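User: Structure tokens for both sequences below?

Assistant:
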Amino acid sequence: MLKIPLIYLKDKQAFRKEDGTLKIIGKPADLARDWKKEGVKLIHIIDMDAMNGNTTNFDVYDTLTYIMNVQVEGANTEKMIAKLLNVDARVIIELPTKLNLSKFSEKKRLMVGKITDAKDMSNDVYDIYYPGTDEKTAEKLLKTKRRIILTSTIKINSRIKPFGKVEI
């Protein structure tokens, strides 16, 4: 099971949320290099700028994808999704969505669906990210034979292990 560190990205700087407040922790590339030395293979990034429609951090993703795998949350338009897929970043899309995800079928392995309920799953994405805390939903998802990513705060008793856990 992968341990997936979570960072927030704003103005090309990495932050961690502590007690509801964002605290700067450094440059994303430096963090990625350090985490790679520790065996981390994937970083979960919440792009605060992308959530506001800004694409200022795309050069950061281009750099990071040369160091390790990243999955980016915050791309909410097809144009942003295409740009992220173009640099081989994994893209987290909230499901259900009105976006036409089938147009990205060539890069489906990089598509991650973020769901709040098991009924929101889609075949247009490869992996499923469930940030919720309901154990029954998590266990139901783990039985679907899909790669499931959970948050580190959820406790599960299933013999089936998730693909990874995002460390909040």
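Moving on to the next sequence.
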Amino acid sequence: MDAQPVSSKSLRRVDGQPQRSKFLIVSGIRFLSEGLAEILAREPWIEISGVSTSVSAAISTSSALLPDFILLDAALDGGLAAVAQFRDVVPGVRVVALAIAETEEDVVSWAEAGVAGYIPRTAALADLVQLLVGIQDGRQPCSSRVVFGLLRRLGSGGGRVRDKSRSASPLTGRERQITELISAGLSNKEIARRLNIGLSTTKSHVHNLLGKLNLQGRGQVAAWTRGTRSWRLDVPRRLRLSKNPSVSLSPSRRSDAPPGRQGDRSPSAALGPDRSDDRLLPRMDIPMTDVRAARGGA
């Protein structure tokens, strides 16, 4: 397949030549990262600076490679926490979450983590370059279902400015929910079922909150939670009083969905032709920075 020139004006220098951007691809699946590198390298505006199979290796090499973009496999453990680390090591780098489930919960979680954009796992390979061009231009195609979920969440108070006692906590709303569930004795699998999120996402949240609070384990999390009950956690009363894992925070995520629709985090799905019903709905472009601002993030 011949490389197709990108028409975006932002990718052209004054002399008309493509403005090249350096990409670092991070995925635990080697053939996926190498396949993406081979395909993207055909684009005249993309330069592949490297591929990595782990977050830790990518963080240690990114300071030398100085990429403009980091394509981060959303299935990697610690991926959410790594976004801030990448941005600290390489100021100005744009991290793009690769192959995320395009749900309200996952989109907000990655937006709060600080990504510049995302590639949904239902995206076709033929759409990948144009999605990256949109992110380069500050645009993020987003399904109307996700937009509606964001509006519903903000309209219910999720985007209001927190009071001083709440703002003293360095944790996001989701991380505070997880600290409460950890203190109740739930395992990572039980927390994932309770909040209707993936196990890898749960592990990333736990890893992230431990780092933020400088804690060493779940027992210390429980002690920290008991000592900070002066501010109210974002956990509905039904979740604090019940251990029934069928209770869900996200009514839009059906617990009776077919296997693979809500728990599957396979990044290889980004290369497949499978698409969800969202393709029948109009899509909207929203900057990820707007999502973070509405949620009270940086």
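User: Anything stand out in the second?

Assistant: Confidence is low (pLDDT under 50) at residues 1-14, 159-168, 230-281.
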